[in-house]
């Protein structure tokens, strides 16, 4: 099997499994919506305040929703033995890992990208800032999945690795959160955000190039 066929076979397999377990798709979306809708109840429905903190609210919610879904990235494969077959495959493990991360983003990150504009309008975000919000989510959520995959691979062999996973990945998520939310905030003021977008693009390219290798190595160590 060629590399491209192996890649898309893994993506297709994970998407089919996710559709059979629809809670994997629904849980992050419902969590994302719930967290955002609770903020007006907690701080009061004051348009000026909500509009000012809307970028941070949306991005913190997206970060937490992504973390909620990280454990499902390799867990089912680890439990049923499929992960061992992936590691023993003649295809490069890093490529197959990248395919699984791609499927994870399609199941979790892409739905967040779709519902985010509606929630941004709910929070009073200006309409001219919505394209920048979508761009930051399009660039930032794959970075969250790529970085999170490394943490999942390191903790997959632990019985209660959720807390350790959070401690591992949260510090690495902070730069994405800072630049993405700052870009949306600046766009809301009508200022250019080219620098922040370029930084996010650079971070995405680095994550795409670098993250699959330590993830594959960590999986091999966890399975040994």
UniProtKB/TrEMBL annotation:
Family annotation (InterPro entries):
Cyt_c_biogenesis_CcmB, Cyt_c_CcmB_bac
Q: Name one GO biological process term.
A: cytochrome complex assembly
State where the protein is found. Answer: Cell inner membrane
One GO MF term on file is: heme transmembrane transporter activity
Q: Write the record's keywords in alphabetical order, separated by commas.
A: Cell inner membrane, Cell membrane, Cytochrome c-type biogenesis, Membrane, Transmembrane, Transmembrane helix, Transport
One GO cellular component assignment for this chain's record is: plasma membrane
Annotated transmembrane regions: 25-43, 49-74, 95-123, 129-156, 163-184, 196-219
Q: How does it sit in the membrane?
A: Multi-pass membrane protein
Q: Which is one Pfam family of this protein?
A: CcmB
**Function of the protein:** Required for the export of heme to the periplasm for the biogenesis of c-type cytochromes.
- Family to which this protein belongs: Belongs to the CcmB/CycW/HelB family.
Give the protein's recorded name.
Answer: Heme exporter protein B
Question: What is the organism lineage in this UniProt record?
Answer: Bacteria, Pseudomonadati, Pseudomonadota, Gammaproteobacteria, Methylococcales
């Amino acid at each position: 099997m060629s590399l491209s066929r192996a890649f898309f076979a893994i993506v297709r397999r994970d998407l089919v499994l996710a559709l059979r377990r629809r809670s994997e798709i629904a849980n992050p979306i419902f969590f994302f919506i719930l967290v955002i809708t609770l903020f007006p109840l907690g701080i009061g429905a004051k348009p000026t305040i909500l509009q000012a903190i809307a970028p941070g609210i949306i991005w913190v919610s997206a970060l937490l929703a992504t973390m909620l879904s990280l454990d499902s990235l390799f867990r089912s494969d680890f439990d049923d033995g499929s992960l061992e077959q992936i590691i023993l495959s003649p295809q490069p493990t890093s490529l197959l890992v990248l395919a699984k991360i791609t499927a994870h983003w399609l199941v979790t990150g892409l739905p967040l990208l779709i519902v985010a504009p509606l929630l941004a309008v709910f929070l009073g975000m200006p309409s001219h800032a919505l394209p920048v919000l979508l761009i930051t989510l399009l660039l930032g959520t794959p970075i969250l999945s790529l970085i999170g995959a490394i943490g999942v691979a390191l903790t997959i062999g632990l019985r209660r690795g959720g807390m350790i996973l959070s401690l591992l990945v949260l510090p690495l998520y902070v730069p994405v959160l800072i630049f993405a939310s700052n870009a949306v905030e600046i766009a809301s003021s009508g200022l250019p955000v080219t620098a922040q977008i370029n930084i996010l693009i650079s971070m995405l390219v680095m994550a795409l190039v670098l993250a699959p290798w330590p993830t594959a190595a960590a999986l091999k160590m966890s399975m040994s």
